[in-house]
Design goal:
Length: 139
C-alpha cells in the first residue's frame, strides 16, 4: 500500500539586516537537527495563513515583529518523507523590515550571514535548498 502524502506545512523567514546579511538560527542541541543552522520559522497551524503563522513564529522565537503583508514569497522546499516520517513543505519568505529587539527566546542562537557565509553553514537538507533559492533571487 502506498503511503498518502500529507505534508506538514512549515514557514521560514529570510530576514534582512539591510546590508546584504540574513538572519540564521542555530538549533538547540537537544532538538531535531540540533546544532544545525536554519532559516527561523515554524509550523502553520490549521487556522492560519502562512504569512500570519510566520509572523507569530518569528515573534515567539526571536522577539521581533514582521508584518505579514510585507513578506515576499521567495522559495520552497519539499521532502516527501518515508514510512517512518511524514512529508514536509517549507515555504520561504523574505522580510526586509522588522521591529523589536532580536533575542533567542526558545534556545539556540541567532546570527547574521551574507550568502557566502550561509553557504558554509551546516544546515538541514531543506535549508540547503532554501539558501540556494535565496541566493538566486536576492543576490
Amino acid at each position: 500500500m502506498t503511503k498518502k502524502f500529507t505534508p506538514l506545512i512549515v514557514v521560514a523567514a529570510a530576514v534582512s539586516d539591510g546590508s546584504g546579511r540574513w538572519l540564521m538560527h542555530k538549533r538547540p542541541a537537544h532538538k531535531q537537527h540540533g546544532g544545525l543552522w536554519e532559516f527561523p520559522g515554524g509550523k502553520v497551524e490549521a487556522d492560519e495563513c502562512p504569512g500570519t503563522a510566520l509572523a507569530r513564529e518569528i515573534e515567539e522565537e526571536a522577539g521581533i515583529r514582521l508584518d505579514p503583508d510585507e513578506l515576499a514569497e521567495t522559495g520552497f522546499a519539499v521532502s516527501c518523507g518515508d514510512e517512518s516520517a511524514d512529508g514536509i513543505v517549507i515555504l520561504l519568505y523574505t522580510a526586509e523590515r522588522w521591529h523589536g529587539d532580536l533575542e533567542a527566546r526558545e534556545g539556540g542562537q541567532f546570527q547574521w550571514f551574507d550568502h557566502a557565509g550561509i553557504a558554509t553553514l551546516d544546515k538541514p537538507p531543506l535549508d540547503v535548498v532554501l539558501a540556494r533559492q535565496l541566493a538566486q533571487k536576492r543576490p
